[in-house]
C-alpha cells in the first residue's frame, strides 16, 4: 500500500486530499498540531468511515519547526509521497505575523528538504506555492510558470523562498520536488476569515432572516477563484509524472470581490445594489433597501495584490487537468452548503 504524508491535513486542502488519496487506496499519514481546542472537524468524517478502516489514516502530533521530531517522524513513516500544505496562509495576517508566516511557509520547507535528502531518494514532494508570489505582475496578465516573482506581502516572500528552494534541491540534489503555484481555491471548508467564506456565510444568514451585515475590505480585489477539491486532484497528478516540474493551477478567469458577493446574494434570492465609493460603499437589498454589506477600513491590507489571474495551459497540456467550477457557480455552491 502506497504511503502518503500530508502536512496540513486538518486544513481545507489537506482534508480534500486525504479523501482523494484514501479513495485511491493509499495509507495516509497526517501531521497535526496539538492545540487545547479540537481542530480536526474537516477530517472527522474520515476517521469514523468504516471503509477507511484502522491503520489507513494515521495522525501524528508534530510541529513543522520542531526539526528533530519532524525529521524522526519522516524517517519512521518513510512515505512514498509528501504533500506539504501546512503553514499560516492568511495574506492579511502575514503583515501582523511576519515571523511566524516566514518560519512556517519558508524555513519549514528547508527543514523538510534537508530531511528528504536522507530519505529514500524515490520519495516525491509536492510543495504548496501561491499566486501571491506574483504580487504586482507589472502588466503580465495572465501569470504563468515563467512570470517574474514580485511578492507584495510577507506571505508571498516566504512562498518565493520556499519555491526557489524546491527548485534548487531538485536541480542540485536530484530530489523529486514539484511546486504547485495555486491561485485562490475555495470551498465550504474554507477558513472563515477568507473573503469567499465570509461572504457565503453572511449571505446564507441574511437569507435566513438574520439582520446581519457583512463587513469587508477591498471590494476591487480581483482574484482567480477555483474549487478546492479540483485542485487537490492536480497536486496528486503532479507527483505521478515521470519528471518533477512546476505548474500553475488556476481557472484563467477572474472576478472582483464585489462580483463574488453579488453572485452569492443572487444565489440565495437576495439581489443587491452597490452604492457609494471607497470606505463609504455599501450593498443594499433591492427589495427593501436594507444594508447587507459594508466596507470597513479594518479589513484593508497595507498593500493588496490588485489582480491575479493564472494561465493553466501547462497543467492542462501535461497533467490533463482543467478547473471546472468558478465564478457564480462557485458562489452558489458555497452558499448552498451554508444553508445545509
Ligand atoms: N480575507 C479577507 N477578508 N479578504 C478580503 C476582505 C475581508 O474581509 N475584504 C476584501 N478582501 C479581499 C482581499 O483584500 C483580497 O483582495 C481578496 O479579498 C481575497 O482575499 P483572501 O480571501 O484573504 O485571499 P488571498 O487572495 O489574500 O489569499 C488566498 O489565496 C492565495 C492564492 O492566491 C490564500 O488562500 C492564500 O493562502 C493563497 O496562497
TrEMBL record:
<dbReference type="InterPro" id="IPR036291">
    <property type="entry name" value="NAD(P)-bd_dom_sf"/>
</dbReference>
<dbReference type="Pfam" id="PF16363">
    <property type="entry name" value="GDP_Man_Dehyd"/>
</dbReference>
<keyword id="KW-0521">NADP</keyword>
<dbReference type="GO" id="GO:0008446">
    <property type="term" value="F:GDP-mannose 4,6-dehydratase activity"/>
</dbReference>
<comment type="similarity">
    <text>Belongs to the NAD(P)-dependent epimerase/dehydratase family. GDP-mannose 4,6-dehydratase subfamily.</text>
</comment>
<protein>
    <recommendedName>
        <fullName>GDP-mannose 4,6-dehydratase</fullName>
        <ecNumber>4.2.1.47</ecNumber>
    </recommendedName>
</protein>
<keyword id="KW-0456">Lyase</keyword>
<feature type="domain" description="NAD(P)-binding">
    <location>
        <begin position="5"/>
        <end position="332"/>
    </location>
</feature>
<comment type="function">
    <text>Catalyzes the conversion of GDP-D-mannose to GDP-4-dehydro-6-deoxy-D-mannose.</text>
</comment>
<dbReference type="InterPro" id="IPR006368">
    <property type="entry name" value="GDP_Man_deHydtase"/>
</dbReference>
<dbReference type="InterPro" id="IPR016040">
    <property type="entry name" value="NAD(P)-bd_dom"/>
</dbReference>
Amino acid at each position: 500500500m502506497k504511503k502518503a504524508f500530508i502536512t496540513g491535513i486538518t486544513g481545507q486542502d489537506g482534508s480534500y486530499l486525504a479523501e482523494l488519496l484514501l479513495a485511491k487506496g493509499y495509507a495516509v499519514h497526517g501531521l497535526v498540531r496539538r492545540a487545547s481546542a479540537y481542530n480536526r472537524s474537516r477530517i472527522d468524517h474520515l476517521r469514523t468511515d468504516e471503509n477507511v478502516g484502522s491503520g489507513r489514516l494515521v495522525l501524528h502530533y508534530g510541529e513543522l519547526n520542531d526539526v528533530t521530531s519532524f525529521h524522526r517522524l519522516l524517517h519512521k513513516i518513510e512515505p512514498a509521497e509528501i504533500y506539504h500544505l501546512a503553514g499560516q496562509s492568511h495574506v492579511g495576517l502575514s503583515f501582523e505575523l511576519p515571523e511566524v508566516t516566514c518560519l512556517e511557509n519558508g524555513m519549514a520547507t528547508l527543514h523538510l528538504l534537508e530531511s528528504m535528502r536522507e530519505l529514500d531518494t524515490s520519495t516525491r514532494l509536492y510543495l504548496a506555492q501561491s499566486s501571491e508570489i506574483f504580487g504586482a505582475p507589472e502588466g503580465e496578465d495572465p501569470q504563468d510558470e515563467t512570470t517574474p516573482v514580485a511578492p507584495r506581502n510577507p506571505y508571498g516572500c516566504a512562498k518565493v523562498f520556499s519555491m526557489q528552494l524546491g527548485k534548487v534541491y531538485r536541480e542540485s540534489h536530484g530530489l523529486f520536488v514539484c511546486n504547485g503555484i495555486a491561485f485562490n481555491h475555495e470551498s465550504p471548508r474554507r477558513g472563515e476569515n477568507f473573503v469567499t467564506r465570509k461572504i457565503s456565510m453572511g449571505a446564507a444568514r441574511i437569507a435566513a432572516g438574520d439582520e446581519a451585515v457583512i463587513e469587508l475590505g477591498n471590494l476591487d480585489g480581483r482574484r482567480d477563484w477555483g474549487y478546492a477539491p479540483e485542485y487537490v486532484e492536480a497536486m496528486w497528478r503532479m507527483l505521478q509524472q515521470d519528471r518533477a516540474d512546476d505548474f500553475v493551477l488556476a481557472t484563467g478567469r477572474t472576478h472582483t470581490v464585489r462580483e463574488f458577493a453579488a453572485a452569492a446574494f443572487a444565489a440565495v434570492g437576495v439581489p443587491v445594489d452597490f452604492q457609494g465609493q471607497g470606505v463609504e460603499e455599501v450593498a443594499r437589498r433591492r427589495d427593501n433597501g436594507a444594508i447587507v454589506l459594508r466596507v470597513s477600513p479594518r479589513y484593508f491590507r497595507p498593500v493588496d495584490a490588485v489582480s491575479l489571474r493564472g494561465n493553466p495551459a501547462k497543467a492542462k497540456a501535461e497533467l490533463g487537468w482543467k478547473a471546472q467550477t468558478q465564478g457564480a457557480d462557485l458562489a452558489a455552491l458555497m452558499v448552498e452548503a451554508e444553508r445545509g
